[in-house]
């Protein structure tokens, strides 16, 4: 038996009811062999991957209607994988990635829970190049800018895995670090279109949530 507790959440996206196994709370911790610690995941951070965050739901909603035709898609920091599950249901060519030791297990379980085919998954550390992963037409992420230092790491991984003509979509809950990512991607030739979004039902404007849509060399895009 694993040394952590889970529960199920339900969320409706695009007329589908997604069932998700998530960690019971943010106090869960189980790292018996020190794998997470070696990856730099502290006990305080360990449970974050296994939660259903508002920005993750915002990204999933965006993926329900996003134009995915002919696009190879990469999700960074997928966690429990809701956005990738939405894309999988739509028949997208999607690869989910994370660095947490249990992300792949939770993603596989959640795909099965929703009667979806298994998703392609890759363990990906943003500071460790993985050339065999290849390049993508669309890179997505949610709530990945916890600290200022995350912006250059995110910029680097996007640089390595985005095609010359590509899109990046980041759902951000307004932690205050998005300007750092804007500068990172502007230096790499991306233009930004930002849209404010509600993160909770009944939230009054000005909304805290943001959908950051970066484009480079895409017909009809901003670049």
Summarize the structure.
The chain is α/β, with parallel strands linked by helices and 223 residues long.
Describe the structure.
With 223 residues, the protein is α/β, with parallel strands linked by helices. Helices cover 25% and strands 29% of the residues. It has six helices and nine strands. Strand 3, helix 3 and strand 4 form a beta-alpha-beta unit. The radius of gyration is 17 Å and the shape is globular. It starts with 5 loop residues before the first strand and ends in a 7-residue tail after the last strand. Keywords: Methyltransferase, Transferase. This is SAM-dependent methyltransferase. GO terms for molecular function: methyltransferase activity.
Shape: globular
Uncertain stretches: none
Tally the structural domains: 1
Helix content: 25-40%
Largest sheet: 7 strands, mixed
State Rg.
17 Å
User: How do the strands line up in the largest sheet?
Assistant: 5-4-3-6-7-9-8
> Please, what is the oligomeric state?
single chain
CATH H-tier superfamily? Vaccinia Virus protein VP39
Structural class: alpha/beta
Order of helices and strands: EEHHEHEHEEHEHEE
- Note the total helix count: 6
Tell me the strand percentage band.
Answer: 25-35%
Fold-level CATH name: Rossmann fold
CATH architecture tag:
3-Layer(aba) Sandwich
Average pLDDT works out at 95
- DSSP E strands, number: 9
Protein name: SAM-dependent methyltransferase
GO molecular function, one term: methyltransferase activity
InterPro entries: Methyltransf_16 (IPR019410), SAM-dependent_MTases_sf (IPR029063)
Pfam families: Methyltransf_16
